[in-house]
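User: Quick sanity check before I run a bigger batch. Here is a single chain. Can you write out its predicted 3D structure?
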Amino acid sequence: MKLFPFYYDITDTRFLVVGGGEVAAGKISRLTSFTDKITVVAPEASVYISDLCHQGRLNYVRRAFQNSDLENADCVISATGDRELNRHISTLCRQRKIPVNAVDDPENCTFIFPAMIRKGPLTVSISTNGSSPSYAAMLKREIAGILPENIDQVLEIMHEVRSAFPEDHPDFDQKERAAVYKRLLAELLASDVLPGQKEQKSLVEEICREVSQSDGKADMKMNHMIIASRGSRLSLRQDEIVSEELKKIGVSTEIRVVRTRGDLDTKHALKDIGGSGLFIREVEEVLHKHEADIAVHSAKDLPYDLKDGMMIACVMPAAAAADLLVMRTEHPHLIGTGSARREAEIRRIFPHADIRGLRGNIETRVRKLSEGDYDAIVIAEAGIDRLQVDLSAFQVRKLTPEEMVPACGQGIIAIECRADDKETIDRLSAINDEETMKRFLPERYLFGLLRADCSMPVGAHAVIRAGQKGDEEITLYALYLDKKDQISGNYRDYKELCRKLADRVM
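Assistant: Done. Predicted structure follows.
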């Protein structure tokens, strides 16, 4: 099949559904949010179909299909459960040039039902050409998870504004109107409470004044940034944290979701996928192409070498750096992790444990633990805190740096941008957390000396404290393959200390 994803006006389209079982009901449930011009022909009908008939939302004919039923149909769904009957109906429809969907029989379909998300004016459809409906369903769940809960209300406001704008502001050309719409959408998506009609008008007028006063793209960019993001719940939460800080200095934001190699391969352990930058290279490419202004990363995902021309311009206040051992039982035997670093450290703590691969987002990993797939899992405390995941049903042990050296930058949100984008760098300097940067710099320096990737057990962590003479002291922890060590000294000497520590463990 060669399927083109039309979005077609079905206002006057008459649908015929042949079959009254659960499969037919599933197709009907999608149609009823778009139309009530539906006729169902079947000897028996499910309770759901009968209820819709009583509500006047479809017409039900209680009998077997007859060829003449096609005379009043513009589009047909054959869901009888009888493969031969479905094929017969498909043949008749093709002869009459009536679009037909023979359920679970792609070769006898001229159209298919995609996996679909509907929220107000927003419709998202996903198709794999019938090759893997389960994968389409999985993508649907992921996309639904990253959509703002109030996206339907936001789009309704955007529709109202776009309808009235040309008449209210006839002097704005196409480029200026596009700038206003883009800024308004970013403001609405960033708002905790959507504005009422009066506030909407004021907001639009304020944006119009800014656009009118702007003398070009650079000025607009100063007040608006596009964030490249992986799109997971944790990534989006971190984007929110950065957006809130930028909003304080008058910068609005919008999110561009980018799927990385590490996100696309959720089957294999990170150590088996191998390579560096599994969760950032595709994001960096978007930055490189000027399709986004900044990228928000979990610093622990950063490879030791960024893409040429990129830099980390600022960091947010750090969350906890530690890993947590989350257990269903006090003496776990089967422990789950997809990290080579965590596996190496867990083998020291529980030398007789069976350690098995575990991938997925935080909620998925906790769910697998609760369902008994594992006795314990290892997870970053920062992610649990930022997503406010409830671990009260489990025993939780916070692992010290001596027990498990954290990943470089664990708990830190790092913001990457192009090194030649001076305006963005200046803006980001206003939200940089200096205390966190003090920890970030030595950890990154040590990690750069170790030059390891996701396939290798490697950790780098710094603890900074006030010294007795007013100077700051630093303790550095390193893990490299089967060796781990630590070193302490004056913070101002951190580069020398990092070099000494790297020499010890490599």
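The CA atoms of residues 76 and 95 lie 13 Å apart.

User: Great, the batch can go ahead then.
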